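Entry:
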Amino acid sequence: MNMTFAEKILARYAGEKQVQPGQILTVKPDHLLMHDNAAPIISKIQSELKEYGIYKRDLPIIVLDHVIPAAAEKNALQHKQIREFVKTYKIPNFFDVGYGICHQIVIEKGLALPGTLLLGSDSHTCSYGAVGAFSSGIDRTEAAALLLTGETWLKVPQSIKITLKKKLPRLVTAKDVILSIIGDISSSGADYCSVEFQGAVSQFSVDERFTMANMGVEMGAKNAMFPVDEITTRYLRSIGVSKSKYIPVQPDPDATYDRELTYDLSSIGPVVATPHSVDNIKPISEVEGIEIHQCLLGTCTNGRISDFQAAAKILKGKKVHPAVRLLLLPASRAVYLDALKEGYIKTLVEAGGTVLPPGCGPCLGAHQGVLAPGERCLSTSNRNFKGRMGCKEAEIYLASPVTVAVSAIHGKITDPRKETKQ
């Protein structure tokens, strides 16, 4: 049938045998993700909701994560409106303040499965390609209509095949890989495309695949996915999802791609995205020595247990530089508890870190960790646009958890490979 992943899964959901890039399809997704923005979404359709109700109770997934706990009366009111909506329409998939960041929760709770279709009112909905789902962001108006009707339209995207070869060197991470790719093809290089990662992917855990799929949208991708393999099935089993619960979709061997790119992982080193664009990528040798004032370890991009483990290994028995604030942002309550159990939080707090509630706040400058004019933050998050962390006169640099941890010790951007062997 020579179809890509995106073509096959969208054909399945549209009831078509064959589809082509550019074709418009009507689909009924399995879930619609919303977060704090559920309040303005449902306010758009108050009269329609009273007359018709929602399409299906288990269609929406709502996670309060952007400004938690509420930082102002406005936020508290929106949260209250959402809780009332959930109670009125008996929404089963509701996760209140403290559960964690929406994208982490969707995967962690087994709501994104291989071969499923999820849409969300957040651009990083593309994260669920880590487990072989087609997932993409839509705007609030589309989300409101989907909530009422259960269906929407999608254009079949062109597909880009990215083949990864060889092994990553020591202290080079999945974050360095995806930043390097974005730097190569640009922040618009995959506009409205479905990106398929293939090749030597078995070296990447689901945590690492999550990091890479999460940043698919930073190169403009509609969707970014990894093939379903033993790594995927093992992870899903660990959260209580058996293979009988899903039907994976794999691209055909003879699928036709708009572009095919190949990357030698052994040649990639630590990199940093410099202000004010995610594709403004520099080898760490070109930015070493730049002084920083804040480090952010976490977010939906790198806030999982393996990220805290890597940072704790570096910071154990050491201290954060006195001029640096190290913020610790677990992606979920479950990650937080696991990191506590394993002693990673203790290690990081003893080093001088400050733990924040599992959520999004500082990543987008919405709550906690806002920068001041002239300050620089080295972050494991996914965006470094001007004003992203609440101040247009501040600078944001993006890097891996190991680079952030090492740099926090020295008070300046530092190559993690120069530390003693980990």
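The longest strand covers residues 158-165.
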